[in-house]
């Protein structure tokens, strides 16, 4: 059985967007493409309706490209326990109210027992200062927290 990975929206955004002129963003895009093409096959990957909704927003042509990348990826349900854990992540002031969808990504990964949450969102998810508090909130709700990481971190595994 392969390790499991939940693909958060920023990963799809980096895959579908034009190369950035910003050197750091361009490097992150390149690492994302490398993970997607060379490492993705080592994992069973998943998304949720939250990813589909975010990928559907914005420019219709860009949205179509993002949605094309999601074809064939297994979906995880946004169940009552997922929504309850997401509220807990917001309610305990771990994440700000504006990060409600980020809390959903974390919660769906935890509730469904996903090992890794892959993201470039280093403000609310792949954030060293928040990881232990996110882990604690998940455990207090009866779930193991996913290992939240960037493609760069997961390629080292």
Write the layout of secondary structure elements.
Elements: E1 4-7, H1 9-16, H2 23-39, E2 44-48, H3 49-56, H4 60-70, E3 74-76, H5 80-91, H6 100-111, E4 116-118, H7 128-140, E5 147-149, H8 151-155
Parallel strand pairs: 1-2, 1-4, 2-3, 4-5
Helix pairs in contact: 1-4, 5-6
What does this structure look like?
It is a single chain. 55% of the residues lie in helices and 11% in strands. It has 157 residues and is an alpha/beta fold. It has a single domain, classed as 5'-nuclease (Rossmann fold, 3-Layer(aba) Sandwich). α1 crosses α4 and α5 packs across α6.
What is the CATH superfamily?
5'-nuclease
**Main pleated sheet:** 5 strands, parallel
Q: Give Rg in angstroms.
A: 15 Å
Q: Label the structural class.
A: alpha/beta
- CATH architectural arrangement: 3-Layer(aba) Sandwich
Helix content: 40-55%
Identify the overall geometry: globular
| H/E topology pattern | EHHEHHEHHEHEH
* CATH class (first level) name: Alpha Beta
User: How far apart are the first and last residues' alpha carbons, in Å?
Assistant: 16 Å
Under CATH, the topology is which?
Rossmann fold
